[in-house]
UniProtKB/TrEMBL annotation:
Cross-referenced SUPFAM superfamilies: Acylphosphatase/BLUF domain-like
Bilayer-spanning residue ranges: none
Cross-referenced InterPro entries: Acylphosphatase-like_dom_sf, BLUF_domain
Superkingdom classification of source: Bacteria
MF (Gene Ontology): blue light photoreceptor activity; FAD binding
Descriptive protein name: BLUF
Domain BLUF: 3-94
Gene3D superfamilies: 3.30.70.100
Amino acid sequence: MYLSRLIYTSKISEEFEQSDIKSILDKSKKNNKKNHITGMLCFNRKYFLQCIEGSRQAVNETYQRILNDTRHTNILMLEYQEIYVREFDCWTMGYIPETRLTNPINLKYSDNDLFTPHDMSGPSAYQLMLALKDYVPLIE
């Protein structure tokens, strides 16, 4: 079966509450482990940026569930491709919030130091996530 990577960004809806992030992570980790999905979620008070990796079928099914979640809007797929290897193979869903540590990394891959993934290309968003994975402490 082919491995796939999907990267999307979305804007937080008015229905979203800060306490939802724990619920999202807990449910994602449980479902992703069962479906052999790996990935990373980046988040601030306005945007989500997420990478999901796994079999083509599992990635597509996961993305369909994501599209129906009312806690976010303006969902924009930045990249979808077949891959040879997972980059987030140790994470059922790693979570990196925006902090002062992320600002220089944001600047490296976008036009400013703010976390604005809606203004990024797919390859830039992917490289940003790889850099965050290597330099910012992960919240599990």
